[in-house]
Amino acid sequence: MKSRTTVMISIVLAMLVASIDATIMNTTMPIIAKELGRFDLYAWSFASYMITSTILSPVAGRLSDLFGRKKVFGSGILLFLMGSLLCGMSANMIQLVIFRAVQGIGAGFMMPFPAIIAGDLFSVEKRGKIQALFTAMWGLSAVLAPLLGSFFVEFMTWRWIFFVNLPVCLIAFVTLLPYKENYQPKNAKVDYIGAILFAVGVTFLLLDTIVKENRILYLLIGLVFLFVFYFYEKKQTSPIVPLSMFKNKMISRININAFIGTTALFGTASFIPLFLQNIAGLSLFMSGVALLGTAVGWMAAAVPAGKWILKYGYRILLIIGNALLFGSGALLTQLDPSHGFWFVFLVMIVQGLAFGLLTTVGMIGVQQLVGAHERGISTSFFMFCRNMGTAIGVTVMGALLTSGSDFMHGIHHLFLFGFIGSILALLTSFFIQKDPSEQKSITPRPKVS
């Protein structure tokens, strides 16, 4: 029991520091760019982190299947710590971009493990509560990030937005050490070539969402590398991404649905604060507080989700989750200047209910429908699909926002895109049939100490 408690402390701290770091840059980056110069590299301070963290999450999940969770998770914490230290010491913007990539590598190695280790340690009915705890860290970061960012900039230096990570990472690493892992790693070779092909292919696809020129070329290069990756993996005895996993139609359709849903509306959190600040006249802090509605709804759906799965199965819950997502999309299309904090807060609760149900049920589904030695890659690939959807969705929404004749016109365009996407997500959820092995897969597992 003590081992499980310490690893939970480590996981929660790692999630908190990674989630704050993902958002605190939004408020402080203009000041950082002013001091370091090279404003043309402004977007790359975000992009380098996003690319490396996204492409390495599934790789980290697979490595944990081969070498164990503790070693890979611990390596991620140390890499994130090193990246944070280097970012805080950056002398120019080029260094910051490079060191943010190092930080992103650490984040990519950390972020899948709360769900993976929870899948190893907890039964289905308890896993919803654990996922809700992890979600609370994202909600807490929505409030802490602007507060910490403004505090460090005003009273200390922006470098402390990175240095503050150091003691938290150290505590997370130390509390991980007593963890006695129940999972027995699979003895197999690492598919390094497959990992490189996958990483290069996904990198070019993500670059396609960032660059403004030669986008078709980036897209084609990315697709070619992924095409080669697919045929290379089919011949491997221990592939970095086991393609046999996708023979289970339910897993494939859950991943597709997660990609579509996050593409549609997960980027809402990036644009709602702009509306609240520019149109509703709210402060930076209050616009962040409005996003807590997402955390409230998310936790309300995630906590009982494990028990609901045992009672109702995956399919009906995923349909309900997508129906709630559709509802939030419909409400967002009605957004106008007369709407303020409470309307947005209530919409965010509905959206939180949707994503809380979809994420928790989807996560448990992809874990339970594979064997223990594929749980790491199955979990992290589900997260990868969500991250790719988010990256593409935010890019499209950003383009739609700037294409409008004024701010509200752009807001209506981007949320119309989200609403249409939510319709597609709802329709695809009906194709998630009940898997023949579903009842067996959701049988409560014995408790572990």
The secondary-structure class comes to mainly alpha
User: Percent of residues in beta strands?
Assistant: under 5%
Write down the overall mean pLDDT. 82
Low-pLDDT residue intervals, each spanning 5 or more residues: 443-449
Number of strands: 0
How much helical structure, as a percent, in the residues? over 70%
Distance N to C terminus: 5 Å
Largest sheet: none
- What would you report as the Rg, rounded to the nearest angstrom? 21 Å
Count of individual helical segments: 20
What's the shape? Answer: globular
Order of helices and strands: HHHHHHHHHHHHHHHHHHHH
Short key terms for the protein model shown above:
single chain, 449 residues, mainly alpha, 20 helices, 77% helix, globular
Tell me what you see in this structure.
By secondary structure, this protein is mainly α. The protein has 20 helices and no strands. Helix 18 (375-403) runs antiparallel to helix 19 (407-429).
